[in-house]
Amino acid sequence: MVDPNSPYRDEKPLIRRGRVDSLDIYEVKEHELELLEKGQVGTLLLNLGIFLFSIAFTCIAALATADFRSPITETIFIFIIVVGILGGLCLILIWWKTKQSIRKVVSIIRNRLNGQVPDVQTPGEPETQPKKPEDSEEPNG
After folding, report:
1. Dihedral over alpha carbons 90, 94, 97, 98 (to 10 degrees)
2. Is residue 135 part of a domain?
3. Domain-embedded: residue 28
4. Which pLDDT score, from 0 to 100, does residue 102 have?
5. What pLDDT sits at residue 33?
6. What's the pLDDT band for 123 if we cut at 50, 70, 90?
7. C-alpha triplet 89, 51, 68: angle, nearest 5°
8. Residue 37, burial from CB neighbour count under 10 angstroms (0-12, 13-18, 19+)
9. pLDDT of residue 135
10. pTM for the predicted model, two decimal places
11. For 105-111, what is the mean pLDDT?
């Protein structure tokens, strides 16, 4: 007799399946999959831009409230302010120009299915007319 906990028993596991009315399958291109995998690539640019702005505004506050005995120290603070503001502005502008929203990619993938009516009927299902887009309960957009 075979042990019931043995991995060599001949019984297959019970598979339970809950049926759904329809199943939507979306085809995804390789570059779209890579974009979804990477996420927001430009967030590093945005984070560095915000960091540089923070440093610049901190130096502005220090420059406005402190008395510097050495003009070299004051010049260094002014240099940090200029570099922080210009660098932060450049990085944020580059981020703004190059950002590609994940929502935009997902929207493109989802829109591939709109307007297509399935041809195949499931056995045992009564024939029904597909819903028209204006009859749909879901808001578009």
Report:
1. -170
2. no
3. no
4. 77
5. 85
6. very low
7. 95
8. exposed
9. 52
10. 0.52
11. 84
Q: Do residues 109 and 36 lie in contact, with contact meaning Cβ atoms separated by under 8 Å? A: no
Tokens for 118?
């399935």
Residue 123 within a domain: no
Element (H, E) at 130: none
The whole domain housing 77 covers 48-109
| Residue showing tokens 């994940």 | 102
Q: State the total domains in the chain.
A: 1
Euclidean distance between CA atoms 55 and 11, whole angstroms: 67
Residue 105 has pLDDT above 50, yes or no: yes
Q: How far is Cα 36 from Cα 28, in angstroms, rounded to an integer?
A: 10
- Tokens read off for 61: 């506050």
**Token pair 């019970």 in the structure block, residue:** 14
In the block, which residue shows the tokens 């901190």?
A: 58
Instruction: Write out 73-116 in H/E/C secondary structure.
Output: HHHHHHHHHHHHHHHHHHHHHHHHHHCCCHHHHHHHHHHCCCCC
Q: To the nearest 10°, report the CA torsion of 2, 6, 8, 14.
A: 100
Which structure tokens are listed for 50?
């915000």
User: Rounded to the nearest 5°, which phi and psi values hold at 93?
Assistant: -65, -40
Q: What is the mean pLDDT of residues 28-47?
A: 82
